[in-house]
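If you are new to this repository, start here. Below is one unmodified record pulled from the training split, so you can see the exact layout before writing a loader.
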Amino acid sequence: KPVRKQREKVIPDAAGRVLEFGLGTGLNLPFYDRARVAVVVGVEPSLAMHRLARRQIERSGLAVELVGLSAEQLPLDDASFDTVVSTLVLCTVDDPAATLAELRRVLAPEGRLLLLEHVRSDDPALGIGALVGVLAAKAAMQAHGISGTIRFMGEPAEKVIGSKPIHAARG
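And here is the target side for that same chain:
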């Protein structure tokens, strides 16, 4: 249920032409605002997941195009998406930096990158692992010229870690 609540907060912000990286079984599809989304291009390398996603696609009422590829090298035009969505998948890719660079490449200059990602906390009481994940996400976004709001424990990350830039090298 906690992940569902986060999906309910993040996914409705998608608009226009949407690329969803890691569509999986289509768990995000019920949360898209059909009035705001023209099409969802779902990138999912597992063809078995495509079969499972079809039920959610039919229920959603959205125009969804499934692509059986990974996100490290997308055969898609530069700046061709208004929104890119990535939920709980960056931990599964071989090269997260290459993936973020590719997602940035296909995102329109004024587009939005919507991330809902997780990390395992080594200290559940303090959430240190999650905080490290927030810092890593912020650094990766800055390194690839991606702007956006990162949330930590339901709050904008800047309230928790401050608004100073994180020094990161471009990949």
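Two things worth knowing about this chain: The first strand starts at residue 16 and ends at 21. The chain is about 30% helix and 20% strand.
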